Here is the input.
Amino acid sequence: MAVSARSLHALLGRTDNDNLPARPVGRPNVLPFVPRHRTLDLDYPNLATRFEPETGILWARMKHRERACYTPEIMRDMRDFQLHLRDLWAGASLDECPIRWLVWASDAPKAWSLGGDLQTFTRMIRAGDEAGLRAYAHLAIDILYDNYVCMDLPILTVALVTGDAIGGGFEAMLTDDIVIAERGAKFGLPEILFNLFPGMGAYSFLERKVGPGLAKQLVEDGITRSAEEVHALGLIDRVCEPGGAEACLRELVAESAPRFRTIKTLRQVRHRVHPVTRRELLDVVDLWVDLAMRLSDNDLRRMDCLARVQERKRAGG
Here is the structure.
């Protein structure tokens, strides 16, 4: 029977594996890391990745071919890329892993991501395809949670926001360790406008970052905010001028190099003290699916209007 590298690593790492030597109490099994030399430069239909060995930056650029949102196609590419990283570097220490920064960027001129694929949502809801909508939602949670935990690799993630991050795009941004945004980018959670809520992690991540009161306000007011306003809330680390995001990123990488280990450890501390679990995210998104399947015709028509914006933003409109 063929076993993938991911599956083999998972089997070997089980704590009930009788073939592993006894371990000191309180310490996990630590397997020797075997380097794998497959490429990090990939060209998916909806995602392109490129590795810079000299900086440790791994670029992941969303192509947004059809709509400036998380279509099922781009989500499949993103998930395959995440699993590829796990397969390559599972078990690597900081000294063994060449990657330091996984940077999510976008090729759409005015959109980082406008979130969930509203065209797909309305089609599934009108067809009564609850199973399909739930499968989409659960895949989104897999992607966002794995980004939140950095695929369990000794790296940090960055959202390089050069255009609007709306709805699920805002949610995805919240899972990154560092957010760099250009002035002019807009941020918001508009789901309440069509009687829904951002169900793929917004409240969970916001509650940990800004507290329950402000998290509730951001989820329920439907207001679009500027990069400067979101920076003032503590949700963006650096705001730069239009066209300056990459230079700002490189400046941050250079400044952080001497203390990267400390920065990464502090991130682990925050996640340990205020964790977000995958189970929590799945429970919430299941509530989102239940509510979405009961939206009215008027709600779906409002969603249709925003779906057209997703198409225009892909073309720079």
Summary: The longest strand covers residues 47-52. The first helix runs from residue 5 to 12. The two ends are 52 Å apart (CA to CA).
